[in-house]
């Protein structure tokens, strides 16, 4: 409940801020000039988001090859416009997989901003054995009443889920990377793909405007935290000398 209240509070705060700015603009410039200025500002912001910000965040960290690659779950909603985000992790896929399996409200959390999406409970900083069993049909909760249902599962490689009662699919997949030097350690590319397929209506348009930036903000934090958790566990597991002089090979987020 706290998660839903926090999201509602944030959306309400943004709406009130926008209303206050609009009211102040009309008071300062007058009704007609103020209305023109507000409409112009909204149009400029919409253009900047559509042609600059959105093309960047829907492929944050992903290479051209990863954006074009077919991933598990793509055929669930083939007409959807996907968002593909990725990050490099200096640990093998088998060290990353346990962190993905235990994702979810009431389990390990979402590794993001816990004061928003995990009822103020800190996400797990360790592998939790009782949450290492995931199967098709299981729920990955975002709140006590809302979440995803696992549709496809390839252990050690990918999890495909769909949002309950919504045409949205989500795939988390692991792709091993080659060692940078002979005898070096394998790394992992963690790739996340969202495929929302909504009928275009005023309500879904408003939902998209609100949810698209919010999803990116939360997801980039999640990917970064999973990377840090997995790399930290790998450093503890392996001798310190094994990491000396080794680069992570991270692909910077773009």
Described by strand count, sense and barrel closure, the largest sheet is: 6 strands, antiparallel
| Series of H and E elements | HHHEHHEEEEEH
* Share in helix: 40-55%
Into how many domains do the coordinates divide? 1
CATH class: Alpha Beta
Q: Can you count the beta strands? A: 6
What is the fold-level CATH name, i.e. the topology?
Alpha-D-Glucose-1,6-Bisphosphate, Chain A, domain 4
Architecture overview:
- This protein has helices at residues 2-29, 31-57, 64-68, 93-101, 114-117, 202-237, and strands at 83-89, 139-141, 147-154, 158-163, 168-177, 187-196.
- With 254 residues, it is of the alpha+beta class.
- The chain has one domain (58-243): Alpha-D-Glucose-1,6-Bisphosphate, Chain A, domain 4 (2-Layer Sandwich), CATH 3.30.530.
- A six-stranded antiparallel β-sheet has the order 1-6-5-4-3-2, with helices on one face.
- Helix 4 (93-101) crosses helix 6.
- The two termini are 34 Å apart.
- The relative contact order is 0.16.
- Mean pLDDT is 85; it is low at 241-254.
Blueprint (SSEs and pairs):
Blueprint: H1 2-29, H2 31-57, H3 64-68, E1 83-89, H4 93-101, H5 114-117, E2 139-141, E3 147-154, E4 158-163, E5 168-177, E6 187-196, H6 202-237
Antiparallel strand pairs: 1-6, 2-3, 3-4, 4-5, 5-6
How would you summarize this macromolecular structure in one to three sentences?
43% of the residues lie in helices and 17% in strands.
